[in-house]
Specification:
By secondary structure, the protein is of the alpha+beta class. Strands 1-2 form a two-stranded antiparallel ribbon. A hairpin with a 5-residue loop joins β1 and β2. α2 crosses α4. It is elongated, with a radius of gyration of 14 Å.
Length: 82
């Protein structure tokens, strides 16, 4: 299991700039080893891009107080994107 920490800077609905650190733990599935090695050129960069997409689309729709309350929803959105 490997961990990737991604720092995302964005603005909330109430115009507050924040930096969120998203930590993702991942591993290659045994049946997908070939695809992981030969099909992906840079998996860490691709995971990072997906995290940026999700966080930069979700966070600007929330006010700062709501961001803390929506932690589980944000985690689920990242998980579904990956």
């Amino acid at each position: 299991v490997q961990q990737l920490d991604v720092r995302v800077e964005t603005k909330t609905l109430d115009n507050v700039f924040l930096t969120a650190v998203v930590s993702v733990q991942y591993q290659v599935l045994r049946e997908k080893v070939y695809d992981a090695y030969y099909a992906l050129t840079n998996p860490r960069q691709q995971i990072t891009a997906h995290i940026y997409d999700v966080m930069r689309s979700e966070l600007p729709t929330l006010e700062l107080d709501a961001v803390f309350e929506a932690k589980e929803d944000l985690a689920l959105a990242v998980k579904n994107a990956l």
